[in-house]
Amino acid sequence: MRLHSLPVRALGLLLALSQPAGAQTAPVVPPAPEPAPIQSDEARLLPVLATRGMVSSQDALATRVGVEILGKGGNAVDAAVAVGFALAVTLPRAGNLGGGGFMMVHRAAARETVAIDYRETAPAAATADMFLNPQGEPDRAASTRTGKAVGVPGTVRGLAEAHRRYGSGKLTLADLIAPAEKLARAGIPVESGLADSLPRASGLLGQWPSSRAVFFEGDHVLPRGATLTQRDLADTLRTIAEQGPDAFYQGPIADKIAAAVRGAGGIMTAADLAAYRPEIRTPVRGTYRGYEIVSMPPPSSGGVHLIEILNILEGYDLAGMGAGSARALHTLAEAMKPAYADRATWLGDPSRTKVPVAGLTAKSYAATLREKIDPERAKSAAEVKAGDPLPYESDQTTHFSVVDAEGNAVSNTYTLNFSYGIGLVAEGTGVLLNNEMDDFSAKSGARNAYGLVGGEANAVAPSARPLSSMTPTFVFRDGKLFLVTGSPGGSRIITTTLQVIVNVLDFRMNLAQAVAAPRIHHQWQPDVLMAEEGISPDTLALLRAKGHNVKVGATSGSANSVMAEDGLLAGASDPRQRGTLAEGR
Ligand code: GLY
């Protein structure tokens, strides 16, 4: 019997007898060729199992904070808020106070799912041409590396609003911030993903004295084995805990953030921070092979295009083609392309542009797109414009999933955009600042850092939210929560989330295998089929024979997920990064 053919239920029975929650199992893919010893995070073949709650995140310390909060009687939202604050300390490249994101919340008793949009906004003084150089071309340095790149952060008010509206009521916001403050003040070991990411960010962080003070020891970033202590961040967290989220948006902390942004050439004011508000949105919904898909609506493109692609795929027998087969991968790639073409044209901030969500997610629309797919040939190069190779870095954003004993769940993706944002810690606050303004279209038809083409619908405008690809998602079966998933990965977030769902629903993989399986990505432009290591050379040759411009690259995403079935929770953290952890109770 092959393990990947076992449904999660059978696996659950098998594993309940043989594995304590949190146990690690044999590697399914080779570890990354890094010199550091593999710790608790080798690739996993089987999910972790539990019955009373599960947290899966990109950092073990943060996962444990979430499990601790569940143990204190907190619900999934309480745990998720605590994880969100903890990741700002333990995963500074993506966890944040100075960025923004999206939280999907499912409330089991109310049978209600809501979407909290705490995406950054453009400052009030932003203009459509602010990222164009004198020649009228996009100025990528300005939109990624200077103070102009910084959007008004949404994370603190977003997490606080989640707690206020949907927390259990048993724990205060201060209770949920306390573990993060403790980690920041006591310090955390530089190991795992932190030790991997700091050297790569050395140039970015090293240009700002306030960032050097936190992340450097002498002339170098903190080495593996050192301790990262963040006293200013601890003080900021304590201030928020004592005075509430407004203390981040008004008063000394806000003044310091605005001063740091302006000192770096930006336009954000203290008034922009004071004006920031999260939005409660209605999720976007679709179905796939009888399961209900509930995901993030605009200003994320994630949910809309996840459903659009699934609608196209529903017309194919993917299971019959076989997981990892050239036929299945070709079908996936050809279904991805029209969705990304639509993204470039139609998607933007819904407060500024009419996004045709119903049309894009309609089964009948997908049928018209499906008709154009040739099962034997990739769409010709003439149908797409040539482009730059895509960046393969995958750790800019972070996703975590939480389910509690009552079936309440959180699917949260948040980000600084690039790894460590612009690399600038606002002096005296410990807060790293985002470069989310690059997610706007600097010019219609121009590409952003992820090679994504954007249109007028995503132009820079005062107080607008830049278009995102973040795709925090729930899958329901017969009205009951079945899967919580999502991922970082820039433009690849949508296709990563898609493939976890397809791996579970079509290919019947257990959750750990669904998360670990090699992934592909095609975003229409540039005309490149990105493939992770691990797809067989035979398959790649068949894809090339069909006309795909295949490029094999590094890792894609970090899909920290939870599955619920028959009272059992299965958790899987992504083996692509060190230090990820799914843990239950
Ligand atoms: N910053 C990446 C995204 O929001 O899609």
TrEMBL record:
Acyltransferase is among the record's keywords: yes
Keyword Transferase: yes
InterPro entries assigned: GGT_bact, GGT_CS, GGT_lsub, GGT_peptidase, GGT_ssub_C, Ntn_hydrolases_N
Posttranslational mods: Cleaved by autocatalysis into a large and a small subunit.
Stored Pfam families: G_glu_transpept
One Gene Ontology MF term: leukotriene C4 gamma-glutamyl transferase activity
Enzymatic reactions: glutathione + H2O = L-cysteinylglycine + L-glutamate; an S-substituted glutathione + H2O = an S-substituted L-cysteinylglycine + L-glutamate; an N-terminal (5-L-glutamyl)-[peptide] + an alpha-amino acid = 5-L-glutamyl amino acid + an N-terminal L-alpha-aminoacyl-[peptide]
Keyword line: Acyltransferase, Glutathione biosynthesis, Hydrolase, Signal, Transferase, Zymogen
Signal peptide: 1-23
Domain of life: Bacteria
Pathway entry: Sulfur metabolism; glutathione metabolism
Record-listed E.C. numbers: 2.3.2.2, 3.4.19.13
PANTHER family: GLUTATHIONE HYDROLASE, GLUTATHIONE HYDROLASE PROENZYME
Similarity field: Belongs to the gamma-glutamyltransferase family.
Assembly description: This enzyme consists of two polypeptide chains, which are synthesized in precursor form from a single polypeptide.
Protein name per its UniProtKB record: Glutathione hydrolase proenzyme
